[in-house]
Design brief:
23% strand, 8-stranded mixed sheet, 568 residues, 26 strands, 7-stranded antiparallel sheet, alpha+beta
């Protein structure tokens, strides 16, 4: 009887007296039912639209989200106490005051998966899986209101704007673009699915028509175009900005200067002539796929390795053999660079993994998924100590793991936020009974599911996989693995590298011959450059790793292959 008595009280608490929001869609904006995540955004300032002020920093503003299914024309949706929010959990807890309010519908598409499941997800539309800039999403302009949770009236809002389409990048003399329909991914998703790449051609590509080139694969987040390459000097009229992250003024000019300097190196004498590519594989869960086969995302690893890369090499005269391909990247790209090298050991001949996402799940950022019971709090009989999620180089913490996941939960249920912890679940987890990623931990309470942790270990814990499979893949991997990280990485990614290093050092039959290096007091994303500050070295991935590989390949290439024609 007690449980039956408490339930009405809980419902009353959730739906108690408070201001709510009644949302309509302008008639011209809708002709059929819509699915998606309806986001209510509140900001105490008008420095930017509220949709651009949601983040993990101390200055974040507020977002509240609800799922909508088959929202029909002419009908309204109520955003009330049931909407889950960040950093304030419920509308009733919002302090009374003046706010700029905005609503946005992040649209979902229905996918009929090859597994037999039907799921609703936000397909990427060329923006790199960002809900606040996704073309086709509809929203309202910000309006100023007075909000008081002690009042009980409805505030009416109307969605009457749509985010426009993003034009495709255009080919230039040096930069080309490719997009192919993947047969593997199309079969998995039950609709046409495309992957592609931005390709930087080597100097002399047209004047050396018989030369075939190695392939430099730069893994990372969604690239709108090939980044960091500029054929003209910095814009002398560019207004200097200030980088809060690096605590430096005029960083935009530094970025342009570095891009121009790279162009001069790339086209100058002595630079290795290779094809450099950045892959585009944004998908319904994130801005990239992590470049591996996944139960929830499908066979992206095979699609990239066996469909996309051979097609790039065919069209642009790549050598087309595993010894002549190498991978590099930072953060997500660092994990991908190492993962594809380990999982496809014959297809790549070297990886340079900077500040990689957790490569040992004993240190899943600050969580040990195998031994901890809760992702959000340290185990204790009496204390409730939250686990840190983000720090600076001095160790000052500005976000907790729970905070970061609360933001994601407000932005999307069932791993649909398009953000970091959700994509890790989407890639690493098995599917649940409805076809969505199975949670590693309860997104609200933080309680860890040990069965999911066991699945992660066998399929995606790279340190464990290297150690487990070394008798089979050691000969193919020796000398190919390079890992770099700052010892004050902002997301604690150095902790997983420590344990990985311990394992790599002990490998025998053969010895690993791996390189692991640390940057003193370096934040995310240190990449092995001891000579320059992080804000400079992060702009020099291509220069650093292409030159490094071009020397190392002399020792790892099969006898008799062509190592000279592309060094003109």
């Amino acid at each position: 009887m007690r449980k039956h008595f408490l339930l009405p009280l809980l419902l009353m608490a959730l739906s108690g007296s408070a201001q709510t929001f009644r949302v309509n869609i302008a008639h011209a904006m809708q002709s059929s039912g819509l699915d998606g995540r309806l986001l209510l955004l509140l900001s105490n300032n008008d420095g930017q639209e509220p949709r651009f002020q949601i983040n993990d920093a101390a200055g974040t503003q507020m977002v509240f989200g609800i799922d909508v299914d088959d929202w029909q024309p002419g009908h309204s949706v109520l955003v009330d106490m049931h909407a889950f929010g960040y950093p304030v959990e419920r509308l009733r807890d919002v302090p009374a005051g003046d706010y700029y309010v905005q609503v946005l519908l992040h649209k979902y598409e229905t996918f009929h998966l090859n597994s037999g499941h039907t799921v609703k997800l936000p397909m990427d539309r060329g923006e790199g899986q960002h809900w606040n800039t996704a073309p086709g999403n509809i929203y309202s302009r910000p309006v100023k209101i007075h909000f008081d949770p002690a009042h009980s009236n409805e505030i009416a809002l109307t969605i009457d704007h749509v985010i426009p389409a993003i034009p495709e990048p255009q080919d230039t003399r040096y930069i080309k673009h490719i997009k192919i329909q993947s047969k593997l991914l199309t079969k998995f998703w039950g609709r046409p699915m495309f992957i592609g790449a931005h390709i930087l051609l080597p100097e002399g590509f047209d004047t050396h028509p018989h030369v075939k080139y190695p392939l430099a694969i730069f893994h990372g987040h969604f690239p709108a175009d090939f980044d960091g390459f500029r054929m003209t000097p910095p814009d002398e009229h560019l207004q200097p900005d200030t980088s809060a992250r690096f605590r430096i003024a005029g960083y935009n000019k530094i970025v342009q200067q570095e891009a121009y300097d790279f162009y001069k190196q790339w086209t100058g004498p002595g630079f290795p002539r290779v094809l450099a590519i950045e892959i585009t594989h944004a998908n319904p869960y994130y801005d990239d796929s992590y470049a591996v086969n996944s139960e929830n995302l499908g066979p992206y690893g095979d699609a990239i390795t066996y469909e996309l890369i051979p097609e790039i090499e065919r069209r642009f005269r790549g050598i087309g053999e595993g010894w002549a391909r190498f991978t590099y990247g930072g953060s997500t790209g660092g994990w991908e660079a190492l993962a594809v090298q380990v999982l496809y050991p014959d297809q790549y001949n070297g990886c340079y993994a900077a500040c990689p996402d957790p490569i040992d799940f004993h240190h899943y950022t600050t969580i040990d998924i195998y031994h901890n019971k809760n992702a959000y709090y340290v185990e204790s009989d009496y204390k409730k100590t939250p686990r840190p999620g983000y720090r600076d180089y001095l160790g000052h913490v500005s976000a907790m793991v729970k905070d970061m996941n609360q933001r994601e939960l407000a932005l999307g249920s069932r791993s649909r936020s398009g953000d970091q912890f959700d994509i890790w679940e989407a890639v690493y987890s098995p599917s649940d009974e409805d076809g969505y990623p199975k949670r590693l931990f309860d997104k609200y309470t933080g309680v860890i599911d040990s069965s999911v942790a066991a699945y992660w270990k066998e399929h995606f814990d790279l340190t464990y996989i290297i150690q487990r499979d070394w008798p089979k893949i050691g000969q193919q991997l020796k000398g190919k693995i390079h890992i770099y990280v700052g010892d004050m990485d902002s997301y604690y990614l150095n902790n997983a590298v420590y344990t990985a290093e311990d394992v790599l050092k002990k490998l025998q039959g053969p010895a690993c011959g791996c390189e692991v290096d640390y940057g003193d007091r370096a934040e995310h994303c240190w990449n092995g450059d001891h000579a320059h500050p992080n804000y400079i070295s992060r702009l020099r991935y291509h220069q650093m790793y292409i030159k490094k590989w071009a020397e190392e390949v002399k020792e790892r290439a099969p006898k008799g292959v062509d190592l000279q024609s592309w060094r003109y």
